[in-house]
Specification:
With about 280 residues, the chain is of the alpha/beta class. Helix content is about 50%, strand content about 10%. It contains 15 helices and 5 strands. Helix 5 packs across helix 9 and helix 9 runs parallel beside helix 14. It is globular.
Length: about 280
Amino acid sequence: MDYQPIIIIGAPRSGTNMLRDILCQFNGVGTWPCDEINYIWRHGNIHQETDEFSTDMVQPKVKDFIRKEFDDFASINNLTFLVEKTCANSLRVPFVDQIIPNAKYIFIVRDGVDVAGSATIRWKAKLDIPYLFKKVRYVPIVDLPYYGFRYIGNHIHKFFSKENHLLFWGPRFLGLNTALKNLSLEEVCALQWQRCVDLSERAFDRMSEEKIIKINYEEFVNNPVEVLEQILNQFQIQHTYDQLKESVKNVRATSIGKGRQAFNEVELKAVIELISDTLKRHGYE
């Protein structure tokens, strides 16, 4: 590879999109023109029930296909840095690292209660046709029928569901179906955040520190210039101070606490108790 892959790892609603879009404002940095490329990552393993892929699933055809997608996109767009952000990758970092061994990572963590509150809304969101067509462009042709049926089934479920939410949204973690049957939606979203953070953290603990930058969402939105400068310097992305300031001019801290405010007292207590260990480990109470 004559470019540097930078992979953003984080649970949904943790600021991953924001971070990707900011990085891609700098010269030589780019990404796919869609929200995520989970369809590419899942090619060759589409029938797996969850997004928790093991390294045993890195078959030669799978590795060659995904690496070619990276290489082709970087080459066509003449990129020095190719940024990739797919939230489901937080459940399978070792799988990703075996496919793209020279990748560097940004691990972003946000308050799990805020994330759960925000994710609950996404589980109930309406169909977004323009968003769908952007992602469909990057579905491998042979996988289109499978995903077409799954997508239709997901929205049919939402239409008839008493809870008015999708059958699945975001990274599919081990135990998701059981959780949906036995827990409230906000608790499911909390578990989704916890599983993403826990598995990512476990994987990064076994990797070289030189490959990883860990950032806190709350710190980033409160001090965007300082935190972004650390990222750019570590990855050696060329920039001026004026470019840096311009890239984060729209970053605001107004979403901090919004997720917590979305819950009533009973819901808030249940969510915090469910994921308390992970919250405390990352400095959230």
